[in-house]
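agent: user wants the full assembly modeled, not chains individually. Plan: 1) parse entity lines 2) check alphabet per entity 3) run joint structure prediction 4) return tokens. Steps 1-2 passed, two entities, 253 residues total. Proceeding.
--- entities ---
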Amino acid sequence: MRIETPVRRRRPIGLTSLIDVIFLLLLFFMLSSSFTRFAQVEITAGIQGASAASSRPDIIIRLMEDGWQVNGETLPEDAAMTRLSELQAAGAQKAALTLRGEVTSQALIDAVEAINTKTTLQLTVAN
Amino acid sequence: MRLTRPKPANRGEPTIALINIVFLMLIFFLIAGTLVPPQPEQLELIATSEAENAPPPDTLFINSDGELMQASGPVTVEEFMAAQDEGSTIRLAADRNLAAARLIEVAAKLREAGAHRVVVVTERAR
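--- prediction returned ---
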């Protein structure tokens, strides 16, 4: 005897479970991604006196709370940058940056970034 | 004469349109965002505008009190360098209010302990 199986009606794909998964993925990526962009600045730090014998810097920059001192001359930041460019044109290659007083990392990194982008001096940072 | 309007059949919500929008948002976040490893709370990174682009900070953090931290908790320079390869580049993320003297001290210690380069990771201001 032949039994005819009833023809099944095709159901449409379940969209609810699909959208559940997509919502989960969306939530995950919304919560874990960030739109902050990052950058990096290299600092070559040496302890004072450790490398002084092998390489003497041509320029000594002292970073203070309210200005810069380039080779002992107190200048505002803009003037200091032009002074550094002049010194570089005159043949200076190495510069050492030291701190005086309470300077924050933000000020230090700003200074290092400015020197690295506007001049091609080899910069060493010391305490 | 009064005509009764045939009632429209109840069709349910337009699921396809909803899925379309959610898909678009998903693709937007996938492409535009970057996944960031967990960072210690209350760490305000240094802001710069012209430095070269870099991936997010992932390894070593210094808070404004000068304490070194990893994602797993506080560390010292020696412990940290013991886990790193010799001659590697160390990416350091410092708080903007940290005393610069401490930052230089840590960078110098890292170099002494065998790091080839020390770079400070900053936030890029728009």
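agent: reporting back. The first strand of chain B starts at residue 34 and ends at 35. The beta strands of chain B are 34-35, 47-48, 52-54, 60-62, 68-70, 73-74, 89-94, 117-124.
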